[in-house]
Specification:
single chain, 231 residues, mainly beta, Apoptosis, Tumor Necrosis Factor Receptor Associated Protein 2, Chain A, 4-stranded antiparallel sheet, 14 strands, 13% helix, 34% strand, disordered N terminus, metal-binding, zinc-finger
Amino acid sequence: MERRVETVRPDIVQCVRGHLLCGECRKGLRECPTCRQPFSDAKPSLVLLQMLEALPKLCQYTNCRAFLEPDDDHERWCGFQPAKCMMNRCDWVGQAQDVLSHVQKCHSRALTVRESYQDMKFQDLNLQNFLKRYFPISAHGQFFWAEAHCNAEKEFFMVTFCLVPNGKPWEDYFIDVSIGSKESFSQSKFKFDLEMKKERNTVYVPSSWLPNFLDKDKLLRLKMVITKGKQ
């Protein structure tokens, strides 16, 4: 049997010989994996629990070997956390750090947008039946999803940006979005909110404006530029 030596996590249980085990790891076991003795009903001492609480803890995500100090936000940005592909009809789920390679490998017809992209097109724009569309964006070593969607009730066309975690970003990102044609358009620029508050990372355009933004081919075009650094 493989044995793992790690910092245990609450809830902690122990066997009659004093070996400790996480409550989560205890599930499905009838005896201690170290000594083959039964588990004890006794609670670990308060001193022991306080000592364990003070020790660095291993990141909760599978295959990540990082140990965490108190108040460490590593797990929030860990690239080993689960993530799913947002492309239409794709049920892939894997590690966040693998999303880009998955998109490149399995969605070869889908353009992976770079730092600057000039021509996302929306055809047959029916706001009442508008289906969400996702655009994969690889920019400055980060991976974003851009989600175009409509809120028919509030009468807004929206583009929301989401960052897929793969290590804590140490730079600011600025997103410049232009929606419309050469003759008539709406332009917005904002600093990406690393707190991931959706409303702060969304561009809103009143749906009543959209007919004026269509080009001669009746297409709604979206242009986007992502820059980094302080501005």
